[in-house]
Amino acid sequence: MSSTAGTEQVSVPHLDPFYRLFAHDSLASTNDEARRLAAGEDAGALVWAREQTAGRGRRGRHWDSGRGNLFCTVLLKPGCPPAQANQLSFVAALGVAGALGELLNDAEIDLKWPNDVLIGGAKIAGILLESRISPAGPVDWVIIGTGINVEHYPVDQDRPATSLKAEGSKAGVETVLESYSNHLLSWQRRWRDEGFAPVREAWLAGCSGLGRRVELAVSDETLAGVFETVDAGGALILAGDDGRCHTVGSGEVVRTLPQT
Questions:
Q1: Can you spell out the DSSP letters for 49-74?
Q2: Helix locations, the chain, DSSP H
Q3: Mean pLDDT of 12-16
Q4: Any long-range contacts for 51-55 (C-beta under 8 Å, 24+ apart)?
Q5: What are the C-alpha distances in Å from 116 to residues 38, 57, 231?
Q6: Fewer beta carbons under 10 A from the terminal one: N or C of the chain?
């Protein structure tokens, strides 16, 4: 592994040679730093910070980013159309799930569309994909930002959360980063070589809410219905309570609902 550190000195985890580590004690956002690096770096740049002072999740939500948890962003340059690049959120979720399965015994790991990872119904990780599209059409780059609750988790939210420590793991942040980066790379290479089909199959096998009634937030409206599947492009297929079949490419499963 070649590594590059920021101005701060932090201990360096052992990563696959694919990665080039940019390690920092503190950053506003690992995604913002990865964006800054994207023009001059090849795929495999990995930005890691002990804390974020302006961490964010999907839809601009604040992401609790205190020391003790994992905050990292990986730069990829898949050279594919934007719709295909969006599949990398499923790749990343499987990478997180693989790491959690390695670090915890008998954990009930659930994957929540589009990019959250839960244990026993409580959120332990989130993923934020950002990209730049070239004028010719393919994406110039994709950055995969990942936050995993290692030592602590937010307790003042409406939705339950948990951490590796709360689930019984003694793994430190470096160990979690090593495990996650390995599983992410394995799934990313499989996606590159075999396409979305095996990723989709594995993700559906661990999906939370599949086959159940769910509430789905889409832009400015809320839909309810049965979560039937994820299609070949990663869109959620909802058999709506309104009698219509909805194909939703962007949104969020808010919660499961009682059966009607």
A1: EEEESS-B-GGG-B----TTSEEEEE
A2: 30-38, 82-85, 88-103, 173-194, 196-205
A3: 92
A4: 51/25, 51/26, 51/27, 52/26, 52/27, 52/28, 53/26, 53/27, 53/28, 54/28, 54/29, 55/29, 55/147
A5: 25, 10, 18
A6: C
The whole-number pLDDT of residue 1 equals: 41
Q: Give per-residue pLDDT as tens, 24-46.
A: 999 999 999 999 999 999 999 99
Cβ–Cβ under 8 Å, residues 43 and 33: no
DSSP conformational letter for 207? B
Tell me, yes or no, if the pTM score tops 0.85: yes
Task: Rounding to the nearest 10 degrees, give the CA dihedral for residues 181, 28, 128, 5.
Answer: -20
Contacts of 140 (CB under 8 A, 6+ apart): 38, 77, 131, 132, 133, 134
Do residues 100 and 146 touch, judged by C-beta distance below 8 A?
no
Tell me, what's the pLDDT at 3? 47
Chain CA centroid to CA 140, Å: 20
pLDDT band at 122 (very low <50, low <70, confident <90, very high): very high
Query: What strands lie across the sheet with 252-256, from one edge to the other?
Result: 245-248, 236-240, 221-230, 213-218, 252-256
Angstrom CA distances, 128 to 55, 57, 115, 183, 246, stand at: 11, 6, 8, 17, 24
Nearest alpha-carbon partner for 105 in 167, 158, 148, 59: 167
The token pair at 38 is 């994207």
**99-115: pLDDT as tens digits:** 999 999 889 999 999 98
Whether 22 has a pLDDT exceeding 50, the answer reads: yes
